[in-house]
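Observation: inputs received (chain + 3,4-dihydroxybenzoic acid).
Thought: call the complex predictor directly.
Action: predict_structure
Action Input:
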Amino acid sequence: MRLLRFIILLCFACGWRVAAAPLSFDATAGERRTMTAPDGRTVPYTAYENIFYITEVEDSTYQTINIFIPDGADGNTPIFLKTNVGGYMASAASQVRSGDVTGRALAEGYVVAIPGCRGRNAVVTGPDGRRRYTGKAPAAILDLKAAVRYLRANDSRMPGNAERIVTDGTSAGGALSALLGATGNHPDYVPMLRAMGAADARDDIFAAVCFCPITDLEHADMSYEWLFSSANAQRRLSAAQTAVSEQLTRDFSAYLHELQIRDGDGAIVTESNYIDFIGDFILASAKQAVTAGATLPADAGFTVQDGRVTAFDVMRYLEWMAAAVRLKTPPAFDAMQVAGGRTTPENDLFGDSDGTPRHFTDFGLQQTSGDRDAHVPADMIARVRMMNPMGYIEDTAADTAPHWYIRHGSRDGDTAFTVPANLYAKLQANRYDVNFRIAWDRPHSGDYDLDELFAWLRQITAQDR
Ligand code: DHB
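Observation:
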Protein backbone atom coordinates (compact mmCIF):
# COMPACT_ATOMS: atom_id res chain seq x y z
CA MET A 1 0.00 0.00 0.00
CA ARG A 2 2.82 2.40 0.94
CA LEU A 3 4.68 1.52 -2.20
CA LEU A 4 1.56 2.17 -4.29
CA ARG A 5 1.09 5.58 -2.66
CA PHE A 6 4.76 6.37 -3.28
CA ILE A 7 4.43 5.46 -6.96
CA ILE A 8 1.29 7.61 -7.32
CA LEU A 9 3.02 10.57 -5.64
CA LEU A 10 6.00 10.08 -7.92
CA CYS A 11 3.69 10.13 -10.94
CA PHE A 12 2.18 13.42 -9.78
CA ALA A 13 5.63 14.83 -9.03
CA CYS A 14 6.73 13.98 -12.54
CA GLY A 15 3.59 15.57 -14.00
CA TRP A 16 2.09 12.31 -15.23
CA ARG A 17 -1.64 12.19 -14.98
CA VAL A 18 -3.02 9.29 -13.05
CA ALA A 19 -6.61 8.82 -14.06
CA ALA A 20 -8.72 7.36 -11.26
CA ALA A 21 -9.73 3.88 -12.30
CA PRO A 22 -13.35 4.10 -13.35
CA LEU A 23 -15.81 2.80 -10.74
CA SER A 24 -13.08 2.63 -8.13
CA PHE A 25 -14.25 3.21 -4.54
CA ASP A 26 -12.35 6.10 -2.97
CA ALA A 27 -11.88 5.25 0.70
CA THR A 28 -10.62 8.78 1.40
CA ALA A 29 -13.86 10.45 0.25
CA GLY A 30 -15.96 9.62 3.31
CA GLU A 31 -17.47 11.89 5.90
CA ARG A 32 -17.42 10.94 9.58
CA ARG A 33 -20.83 10.95 11.25
CA THR A 34 -22.72 9.47 14.16
CA MET A 35 -26.22 8.08 14.42
CA THR A 36 -28.18 7.72 17.63
CA ALA A 37 -29.73 4.27 17.54
CA PRO A 38 -33.29 3.77 18.89
CA ASP A 39 -31.75 2.19 22.01
CA GLY A 40 -29.79 5.41 22.65
CA ARG A 41 -26.43 4.04 21.54
CA THR A 42 -24.19 6.29 19.47
CA VAL A 43 -23.14 4.55 16.26
CA PRO A 44 -20.12 6.14 14.58
CA TYR A 45 -19.86 5.58 10.83
CA THR A 46 -18.38 6.95 7.64
CA ALA A 47 -20.69 8.07 4.84
CA TYR A 48 -19.75 7.87 1.17
CA GLU A 49 -22.35 9.55 -0.96
CA ASN A 50 -23.39 10.22 -4.54
CA ILE A 51 -21.11 7.63 -6.10
CA PHE A 52 -21.93 6.79 -9.71
CA TYR A 53 -22.06 3.02 -10.06
CA ILE A 54 -21.83 3.03 -13.85
CA THR A 55 -19.68 4.95 -16.32
CA GLU A 56 -22.33 5.74 -18.97
CA VAL A 57 -24.65 7.70 -16.70
CA GLU A 58 -28.01 8.37 -18.30
CA ASP A 59 -29.79 9.84 -15.30
CA SER A 60 -27.50 11.51 -12.78
CA THR A 61 -30.35 11.98 -10.28
CA TYR A 62 -30.81 8.29 -9.73
CA GLN A 63 -27.82 6.21 -10.86
CA THR A 64 -25.79 6.70 -7.71
CA ILE A 65 -25.20 4.79 -4.51
CA ASN A 66 -24.66 5.90 -0.91
CA ILE A 67 -22.57 3.65 1.29
CA PHE A 68 -22.43 3.84 5.09
CA ILE A 69 -19.68 1.98 6.92
CA PRO A 70 -19.95 1.61 10.70
CA ASP A 71 -16.75 1.64 12.73
CA GLY A 72 -15.56 -1.89 13.29
CA ALA A 73 -16.76 -3.23 9.94
CA ASP A 74 -14.23 -5.49 8.28
CA GLY A 75 -13.91 -7.75 5.27
CA ASN A 76 -16.37 -10.22 6.78
CA THR A 77 -19.17 -7.77 7.51
CA PRO A 78 -22.34 -8.42 5.51
CA ILE A 79 -23.67 -5.63 3.30
CA PHE A 80 -27.30 -4.61 3.71
CA LEU A 81 -28.53 -3.18 0.40
CA LYS A 82 -31.82 -1.35 0.75
CA THR A 83 -33.88 -0.23 -2.23
CA ASN A 84 -36.41 2.51 -1.53
CA VAL A 85 -38.39 1.83 -4.71
CA GLY A 86 -42.15 2.07 -4.30
CA GLY A 87 -44.79 2.03 -7.01
CA TYR A 88 -42.09 1.21 -9.58
CA MET A 89 -41.13 4.90 -9.37
CA ALA A 90 -37.57 6.19 -9.55
CA SER A 91 -35.84 6.40 -6.20
CA ALA A 92 -32.77 8.39 -5.28
CA ALA A 93 -29.98 7.12 -3.03
CA SER A 94 -30.87 8.20 0.49
CA GLN A 95 -29.50 8.49 4.02
CA VAL A 96 -29.53 5.88 6.77
CA ARG A 97 -32.35 6.67 9.19
CA SER A 98 -32.16 5.78 12.82
CA GLY A 99 -35.81 4.75 13.00
CA ASP A 100 -35.96 2.43 9.98
CA VAL A 101 -34.41 -0.79 8.74
CA THR A 102 -31.30 0.98 7.42
CA GLY A 103 -30.52 2.47 10.85
CA ARG A 104 -31.14 -0.88 12.45
CA ALA A 105 -28.75 -2.54 9.99
CA LEU A 106 -26.08 0.07 10.68
CA ALA A 107 -26.56 -0.32 14.44
CA GLU A 108 -26.24 -4.10 13.98
CA GLY A 109 -22.84 -3.46 12.39
CA TYR A 110 -23.76 -4.02 8.74
CA VAL A 111 -22.31 -1.98 5.93
CA VAL A 112 -25.40 -0.27 4.52
CA ALA A 113 -25.71 0.48 0.80
CA ILE A 114 -28.62 2.52 -0.51
CA PRO A 115 -28.55 2.79 -4.29
CA GLY A 116 -30.91 4.93 -6.28
CA CYS A 117 -32.36 3.62 -9.50
CA ARG A 118 -34.42 4.81 -12.42
CA GLY A 119 -38.14 4.13 -12.37
CA ARG A 120 -41.17 4.59 -14.55
CA ASN A 121 -41.40 8.35 -13.91
CA ALA A 122 -37.70 9.15 -14.46
CA VAL A 123 -37.30 11.54 -17.35
CA VAL A 124 -34.45 13.49 -18.93
CA THR A 125 -34.53 16.29 -21.47
CA GLY A 126 -32.20 15.69 -24.40
CA PRO A 127 -30.12 18.32 -26.25
CA ASP A 128 -33.00 18.54 -28.75
CA GLY A 129 -35.36 19.56 -25.92
CA ARG A 130 -37.27 16.28 -26.11
CA ARG A 131 -38.31 14.59 -22.89
CA ARG A 132 -37.29 10.95 -22.72
CA TYR A 133 -38.33 8.51 -20.04
CA THR A 134 -35.27 6.59 -18.89
CA GLY A 135 -36.71 4.25 -16.31
CA LYS A 136 -39.22 2.02 -18.06
CA ALA A 137 -38.76 -1.71 -17.47
CA PRO A 138 -36.25 -3.23 -17.07
CA ALA A 139 -34.21 -0.11 -16.14
CA ALA A 140 -34.63 -0.43 -12.35
CA ILE A 141 -33.28 -3.96 -12.13
CA LEU A 142 -30.38 -3.06 -14.43
CA ASP A 143 -29.45 -0.17 -12.15
CA LEU A 144 -29.66 -2.28 -9.01
CA LYS A 145 -27.57 -5.02 -10.60
CA ALA A 146 -25.02 -2.39 -11.57
CA ALA A 147 -24.95 -1.23 -7.93
CA VAL A 148 -24.28 -4.83 -6.81
CA ARG A 149 -21.52 -5.10 -9.39
CA TYR A 150 -20.00 -1.88 -8.07
CA LEU A 151 -19.88 -3.34 -4.56
CA ARG A 152 -18.30 -6.55 -5.86
CA ALA A 153 -15.76 -4.78 -8.02
CA ASN A 154 -14.71 -2.77 -4.95
CA ASP A 155 -14.80 -5.61 -2.44
CA SER A 156 -11.10 -5.32 -1.63
CA ARG A 157 -11.18 -1.49 -1.45
CA MET A 158 -13.81 -1.15 1.27
CA PRO A 159 -14.99 -2.92 4.42
CA GLY A 160 -17.94 -5.23 3.86
CA ASN A 161 -18.08 -8.63 2.24
CA ALA A 162 -19.61 -8.51 -1.24
CA GLU A 163 -20.18 -12.27 -0.99
CA ARG A 164 -22.68 -11.46 1.78
CA ILE A 165 -24.95 -8.91 0.13
CA VAL A 166 -28.47 -8.93 1.52
CA THR A 167 -31.07 -6.94 -0.43
CA ASP A 168 -34.24 -5.55 1.11
CA GLY A 169 -37.29 -3.89 -0.41
CA THR A 170 -41.03 -3.49 -0.04
CA SER A 171 -43.77 -3.84 -2.65
CA ALA A 172 -42.25 -2.87 -6.03
CA GLY A 173 -38.99 -2.73 -4.04
CA GLY A 174 -39.75 -6.23 -2.74
CA ALA A 175 -40.19 -7.34 -6.33
CA LEU A 176 -36.82 -5.84 -7.24
CA SER A 177 -35.19 -7.52 -4.25
CA ALA A 178 -36.67 -10.83 -5.48
CA LEU A 179 -35.36 -10.12 -8.97
CA LEU A 180 -31.88 -9.43 -7.64
CA GLY A 181 -32.14 -12.71 -5.76
CA ALA A 182 -33.36 -14.80 -8.65
CA THR A 183 -31.38 -13.48 -11.61
CA GLY A 184 -27.75 -13.37 -10.41
CA ASN A 185 -25.29 -13.14 -13.33
CA HIS A 186 -27.93 -14.15 -15.87
CA PRO A 187 -26.82 -13.46 -19.45
CA ASP A 188 -30.18 -11.83 -20.32
CA TYR A 189 -29.02 -8.65 -18.57
CA VAL A 190 -25.38 -8.62 -19.60
CA PRO A 191 -25.51 -6.71 -22.90
CA MET A 192 -27.50 -3.88 -21.31
CA LEU A 193 -25.26 -3.79 -18.24
CA ARG A 194 -22.22 -3.55 -20.51
CA ALA A 195 -23.79 -0.74 -22.51
CA MET A 196 -24.42 1.17 -19.25
CA GLY A 197 -20.79 0.81 -18.25
CA ALA A 198 -21.52 -1.37 -15.23
CA ALA A 199 -18.47 -2.86 -13.51
CA ASP A 200 -17.27 -6.12 -14.97
CA ALA A 201 -18.13 -8.13 -11.85
CA ARG A 202 -20.70 -10.68 -10.69
CA ASP A 203 -24.14 -9.50 -9.59
CA ASP A 204 -25.45 -12.50 -7.66
CA ILE A 205 -26.41 -11.84 -4.04
CA PHE A 206 -26.44 -13.83 -0.80
CA ALA A 207 -29.97 -13.21 0.46
CA ALA A 208 -33.14 -11.50 -0.74
CA VAL A 209 -35.54 -9.95 1.77
CA CYS A 210 -38.86 -9.32 0.06
CA PHE A 211 -41.82 -7.63 1.74
CA CYS A 212 -45.14 -7.89 -0.17
CA PRO A 213 -43.45 -8.19 -3.56
CA ILE A 214 -45.61 -6.88 -6.42
CA THR A 215 -44.19 -9.42 -8.80
CA ASP A 216 -45.01 -12.13 -11.36
CA LEU A 217 -46.76 -9.26 -13.11
CA GLU A 218 -47.91 -11.16 -16.19
CA HIS A 219 -49.80 -13.58 -13.93
CA ALA A 220 -50.84 -11.09 -11.27
CA ASP A 221 -54.24 -10.36 -12.83
CA MET A 222 -55.30 -14.00 -12.85
CA SER A 223 -53.93 -14.52 -9.34
CA TYR A 224 -55.89 -11.51 -8.12
CA GLU A 225 -59.18 -12.68 -9.61
CA TRP A 226 -58.70 -16.24 -8.44
CA LEU A 227 -58.28 -14.97 -4.90
CA PHE A 228 -60.73 -12.09 -4.80
CA SER A 229 -63.51 -12.96 -7.24
CA SER A 230 -65.61 -14.50 -4.47
CA ALA A 231 -66.19 -10.89 -3.41
CA ASN A 232 -67.37 -9.76 -6.85
CA ALA A 233 -70.80 -8.86 -5.46
CA GLN A 234 -69.21 -6.39 -3.03
CA ARG A 235 -66.86 -5.10 -5.71
CA ARG A 236 -69.86 -3.72 -7.64
CA LEU A 237 -68.47 -4.73 -11.02
CA SER A 238 -69.89 -3.93 -14.43
CA ALA A 239 -70.91 -6.81 -16.69
CA ALA A 240 -67.67 -6.37 -18.65
CA GLN A 241 -65.57 -6.43 -15.47
CA THR A 242 -67.39 -9.53 -14.25
CA ALA A 243 -66.67 -11.30 -17.52
CA VAL A 244 -63.00 -10.31 -17.28
CA SER A 245 -62.86 -11.51 -13.68
CA GLU A 246 -64.37 -14.87 -14.59
CA GLN A 247 -62.02 -15.40 -17.52
CA LEU A 248 -58.95 -14.50 -15.47
CA THR A 249 -60.07 -16.79 -12.64
CA ARG A 250 -60.22 -19.65 -15.15
CA ASP A 251 -56.82 -18.72 -16.55
CA PHE A 252 -55.26 -19.12 -13.11
CA SER A 253 -55.92 -22.86 -13.22
CA ALA A 254 -53.92 -23.19 -16.43
CA TYR A 255 -51.14 -21.18 -14.81
CA LEU A 256 -51.12 -23.47 -11.78
CA HIS A 257 -50.69 -26.41 -14.10
CA GLU A 258 -47.69 -24.66 -15.68
CA LEU A 259 -46.14 -23.88 -12.29
CA GLN A 260 -45.88 -27.46 -11.03
CA ILE A 261 -45.77 -26.42 -7.38
CA ARG A 262 -45.08 -29.15 -4.80
CA ASP A 263 -46.45 -29.26 -1.28
CA GLY A 264 -44.49 -30.06 1.89
CA ASP A 265 -44.66 -33.80 1.07
CA GLY A 266 -43.26 -33.28 -2.41
CA ALA A 267 -46.60 -33.95 -4.13
CA ILE A 268 -47.61 -31.78 -7.08
CA VAL A 269 -50.17 -29.17 -6.07
CA THR A 270 -53.15 -29.17 -8.39
CA GLU A 271 -56.19 -26.96 -8.56
CA SER A 272 -57.99 -29.21 -6.10
CA ASN A 273 -55.43 -29.00 -3.29
CA TYR A 274 -54.04 -25.53 -3.98
CA ILE A 275 -56.61 -24.18 -1.53
CA ASP A 276 -55.15 -26.37 1.21
CA PHE A 277 -51.64 -25.40 0.19
CA ILE A 278 -52.31 -21.72 0.76
CA GLY A 279 -54.66 -22.39 3.69
CA ASP A 280 -51.69 -23.81 5.60
CA PHE A 281 -49.93 -20.43 5.46
CA ILE A 282 -53.01 -18.64 6.73
CA LEU A 283 -53.55 -21.11 9.53
CA ALA A 284 -49.92 -20.91 10.64
CA SER A 285 -50.13 -17.11 10.63
CA ALA A 286 -53.39 -17.04 12.61
CA LYS A 287 -52.10 -19.57 15.15
CA GLN A 288 -49.02 -17.50 15.76
CA ALA A 289 -51.15 -14.36 16.17
CA VAL A 290 -53.44 -16.08 18.68
CA THR A 291 -50.46 -17.31 20.66
CA ALA A 292 -49.24 -13.71 20.75
CA GLY A 293 -52.61 -12.63 22.15
CA ALA A 294 -54.51 -11.50 19.05
CA THR A 295 -58.25 -11.98 18.65
CA LEU A 296 -59.25 -13.43 15.28
CA PRO A 297 -62.30 -12.05 13.45
CA ALA A 298 -65.40 -13.98 14.47
CA ASP A 299 -66.67 -14.79 10.97
CA ALA A 300 -63.38 -15.60 9.21
CA GLY A 301 -63.49 -19.38 9.44
CA PHE A 302 -61.47 -19.97 12.61
CA THR A 303 -62.65 -21.88 15.67
CA VAL A 304 -60.73 -20.78 18.75
CA GLN A 305 -61.02 -22.66 22.04
CA ASP A 306 -59.04 -22.03 25.20
CA GLY A 307 -56.76 -19.64 23.36
CA ARG A 308 -55.98 -22.12 20.56
CA VAL A 309 -57.16 -22.42 16.97
CA THR A 310 -58.85 -25.82 16.88
CA ALA A 311 -60.49 -25.74 13.44
CA PHE A 312 -60.15 -23.79 10.22
CA ASP A 313 -62.47 -23.51 7.25
CA VAL A 314 -60.23 -22.19 4.50
CA MET A 315 -63.08 -21.53 2.04
CA ARG A 316 -64.86 -19.43 4.63
CA TYR A 317 -61.64 -17.55 5.34
CA LEU A 318 -61.05 -16.81 1.65
CA GLU A 319 -64.57 -15.41 1.27
CA TRP A 320 -64.17 -13.27 4.38
CA MET A 321 -60.75 -12.12 3.27
CA ALA A 322 -61.82 -11.29 -0.28
CA ALA A 323 -64.64 -9.09 1.00
CA ALA A 324 -62.44 -7.40 3.61
CA VAL A 325 -59.24 -6.90 1.68
CA ARG A 326 -59.92 -6.54 -2.09
CA LEU A 327 -58.74 -3.22 -3.43
CA LYS A 328 -58.53 -3.32 -7.21
CA THR A 329 -61.06 -3.94 -9.97
CA PRO A 330 -60.47 -6.52 -12.71
CA PRO A 331 -57.98 -6.63 -14.25
CA ALA A 332 -55.89 -5.40 -11.35
CA PHE A 333 -52.64 -4.77 -13.22
CA ASP A 334 -52.82 -4.77 -17.03
CA ALA A 335 -55.99 -2.70 -16.83
CA MET A 336 -55.50 0.05 -19.41
CA GLN A 337 -58.82 0.38 -21.27
CA VAL A 338 -59.82 -3.18 -20.39
CA ALA A 339 -63.46 -3.20 -19.29
CA GLY A 340 -63.18 0.55 -18.75
CA GLY A 341 -60.01 0.16 -16.70
CA ARG A 342 -57.47 2.91 -16.03
CA THR A 343 -53.79 2.97 -16.88
CA THR A 344 -51.98 1.36 -13.95
CA PRO A 345 -48.44 1.79 -12.59
CA GLU A 346 -47.63 -1.44 -14.41
CA ASN A 347 -48.89 -0.20 -17.81
CA ASP A 348 -46.66 2.81 -17.22
CA LEU A 349 -43.74 0.64 -16.11
CA PHE A 350 -43.87 -1.26 -19.38
CA GLY A 351 -44.50 1.92 -21.34
CA ASP A 352 -42.32 3.40 -24.08
CA SER A 353 -39.57 5.95 -23.61
CA ASP A 354 -41.90 8.68 -24.92
CA GLY A 355 -44.20 7.94 -21.98
CA THR A 356 -46.88 5.96 -23.83
CA PRO A 357 -48.21 3.20 -21.54
CA ARG A 358 -48.42 -0.33 -22.95
CA HIS A 359 -50.12 -3.64 -22.42
CA PHE A 360 -47.81 -6.33 -21.12
CA THR A 361 -50.14 -9.35 -21.21
CA ASP A 362 -51.75 -11.07 -24.17
CA PHE A 363 -55.03 -10.92 -22.28
CA GLY A 364 -54.95 -7.13 -21.99
CA LEU A 365 -53.94 -6.70 -25.60
CA GLN A 366 -56.63 -9.09 -26.81
CA GLN A 367 -59.28 -7.30 -24.80
CA THR A 368 -58.52 -3.88 -26.23
CA SER A 369 -57.62 -4.91 -29.77
CA GLY A 370 -60.58 -7.24 -30.16
CA ASP A 371 -58.17 -9.72 -31.75
CA ARG A 372 -58.35 -12.99 -29.83
CA ASP A 373 -55.06 -14.12 -31.34
CA ALA A 374 -53.11 -10.99 -30.46
CA HIS A 375 -49.81 -11.43 -28.65
CA VAL A 376 -47.52 -8.86 -27.10
CA PRO A 377 -44.50 -8.33 -29.38
CA ALA A 378 -41.10 -9.91 -28.83
CA ASP A 379 -39.58 -6.77 -27.28
CA MET A 380 -42.32 -6.78 -24.64
CA ILE A 381 -41.91 -10.51 -23.98
CA ALA A 382 -38.22 -9.89 -23.27
CA ARG A 383 -38.92 -6.93 -20.98
CA VAL A 384 -41.62 -8.76 -19.05
CA ARG A 385 -39.34 -11.76 -18.62
CA MET A 386 -36.55 -9.59 -17.23
CA MET A 387 -38.95 -8.21 -14.61
CA ASN A 388 -40.13 -11.57 -13.30
CA PRO A 389 -38.03 -13.64 -10.86
CA MET A 390 -40.24 -16.70 -11.41
CA GLY A 391 -38.68 -17.52 -14.79
CA TYR A 392 -35.11 -17.55 -13.47
CA ILE A 393 -35.36 -19.71 -10.36
CA GLU A 394 -34.86 -22.98 -12.19
CA ASP A 395 -32.74 -21.50 -14.96
CA THR A 396 -29.25 -22.94 -14.59
CA ALA A 397 -27.77 -19.84 -16.22
CA ALA A 398 -28.82 -17.82 -13.14
CA ASP A 399 -26.96 -17.87 -9.82
CA THR A 400 -29.99 -17.57 -7.58
CA ALA A 401 -29.48 -16.35 -4.01
CA PRO A 402 -29.25 -19.25 -1.52
CA HIS A 403 -31.34 -17.47 1.17
CA TRP A 404 -34.78 -15.85 1.01
CA TYR A 405 -37.04 -14.06 3.48
CA ILE A 406 -40.54 -13.30 2.19
CA ARG A 407 -43.37 -11.62 4.09
CA HIS A 408 -46.86 -10.64 2.99
CA GLY A 409 -49.54 -9.10 5.20
CA SER A 410 -52.86 -10.93 5.56
CA ARG A 411 -54.65 -7.59 4.95
CA ASP A 412 -52.70 -6.77 1.79
CA GLY A 413 -55.00 -6.12 -1.18
CA ASP A 414 -52.37 -4.71 -3.53
CA THR A 415 -51.62 -8.13 -4.95
CA ALA A 416 -52.91 -11.62 -4.19
CA PHE A 417 -50.94 -13.48 -1.54
CA THR A 418 -50.80 -16.38 -3.96
CA VAL A 419 -48.06 -14.38 -5.71
CA PRO A 420 -45.52 -14.57 -2.84
CA ALA A 421 -46.80 -18.07 -1.98
CA ASN A 422 -45.96 -19.24 -5.50
CA LEU A 423 -42.58 -17.53 -5.33
CA TYR A 424 -41.93 -19.40 -2.09
CA ALA A 425 -43.06 -22.70 -3.62
CA LYS A 426 -40.86 -22.33 -6.67
CA LEU A 427 -37.82 -21.52 -4.54
CA GLN A 428 -38.56 -24.32 -2.10
CA ALA A 429 -38.92 -26.85 -4.92
CA ASN A 430 -35.51 -25.80 -6.18
CA ARG A 431 -33.98 -26.32 -2.73
CA TYR A 432 -33.35 -22.74 -1.76
CA ASP A 433 -33.54 -21.74 1.90
CA VAL A 434 -36.82 -19.79 2.18
CA ASN A 435 -38.38 -18.25 5.25
CA PHE A 436 -41.92 -17.33 4.18
CA ARG A 437 -44.79 -16.19 6.33
CA ILE A 438 -48.10 -14.42 6.02
CA ALA A 439 -47.93 -11.65 8.63
CA TRP A 440 -51.24 -11.62 10.46
CA ASP A 441 -53.34 -8.46 10.14
CA ARG A 442 -50.64 -6.54 8.31
CA PRO A 443 -51.62 -4.25 5.44
CA HIS A 444 -49.45 -3.59 2.38
CA SER A 445 -46.23 -2.63 4.16
CA GLY A 446 -42.68 -3.72 4.91
CA ASP A 447 -39.67 -3.69 7.20
CA TYR A 448 -41.65 -4.82 10.25
CA ASP A 449 -40.72 -7.37 12.93
CA LEU A 450 -37.10 -6.31 12.63
CA ASP A 451 -35.98 -8.40 15.62
CA GLU A 452 -37.12 -11.46 13.74
CA LEU A 453 -35.53 -10.34 10.46
CA PHE A 454 -32.16 -9.60 12.03
CA ALA A 455 -32.19 -12.86 14.02
CA TRP A 456 -32.68 -14.67 10.70
CA LEU A 457 -29.89 -12.66 9.08
CA ARG A 458 -27.54 -13.47 11.97
CA GLN A 459 -28.34 -17.13 11.58
CA ILE A 460 -27.76 -17.33 7.81
CA THR A 461 -24.58 -15.26 7.92
CA ALA A 462 -23.18 -17.34 10.81
CA GLN A 463 -23.95 -20.72 9.25
CA ASP A 464 -22.41 -19.78 5.91
CA ARG A 465 -19.22 -18.30 7.27
C1 DHB B 1 -46.95 -0.81 -5.45
C2 DHB B 1 -48.29 -1.01 -5.11
C3 DHB B 1 -49.14 -1.45 -6.08
O1 DHB B 1 -50.46 -1.69 -5.80
C4 DHB B 1 -48.69 -1.70 -7.38
O2 DHB B 1 -49.56 -2.13 -8.31
C5 DHB B 1 -47.36 -1.52 -7.70
C6 DHB B 1 -46.47 -1.07 -6.73
C7 DHB B 1 -46.01 -0.32 -4.39
O3 DHB B 1 -46.46 0.03 -3.29
O4 DHB B 1 -44.79 -0.30 -4.64
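Thought: report the result.
Final Answer: The chain has a mean pLDDT of 94. The first strand starts at residue 31 and ends at 36.
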